[in-house]
Design brief:
With about 150 residues, the chain is mostly helical. The chain is about 75% helix and about 0% strand. The chain contains four helices and no strands. Helix 3 runs antiparallel to helix 4.
Length: about 150
């Protein structure tokens, strides 16, 4: 008589169960499945992601502002003679001026990033309020089931 519960069969069964679990978890992360089958978790994820992104962008902007202030202080100290760079230092009036211009451009992009992050959060909240669900099929208009 042939044994059904051999070591190889148990390993195959466990691998199939693991594969099935992986497929299920992956499927439940898609907006098509999650928005229909687990809408509360789906929208909590969208809103949490939006909030985290907005906070991160806000903090990034704050760090850039602090960096810009520090570089401006160093430049004013250099111009007034309070700060004297070490011999052979790469820090000089020209490099500090370039750093300020770079900081200004980076801060302007950071402000734009922060605005987009807050817009993303508001979009997620609007989708949740509208009880939006992603379409399960392909659309010819290319809108992807968006309201």
């Amino acid at each position: 008589m042939k044994r059904v519960f051999t070591r190889e069969n148990v390993v195959r069964l466990l691998l199939l169960v693991a594969l099935g679990g992986t497929l299920y978890k992956g499927f439940m992360k898609t907006p098509e499945a999650a928005s229909w089958l687990r809408p509360r978790d789906f929208f909590n994820g969208l809103v949490n992601d939006g909030e985290n992104t907005a906070i991160m962008k806000e903090r990034h902007r704050d760090v850039l502002e602090a960096t810009d202030k520090a570089v401006r202080v160093r430049l004013s100290e250099l111009r007034s003679g309070v700060y004297k760079p070490a011999k052979g230092s790469l820090v000089g009036e020209e490099s500090l001026t370039r750093a300020i211009r770079k900081d200004q451009a980076t801060r302007e992009r950071a402000v734009d990033d922060e605005v987009r992050a807050w817009e993303k959060l508001e979009r997620a909240r609007r989708l949740e309020a509208a009880h939006w669900r992603m379409g399960l099929g392909c659309t010819e208009t290319g809108e992807g089931g968006r309201p």
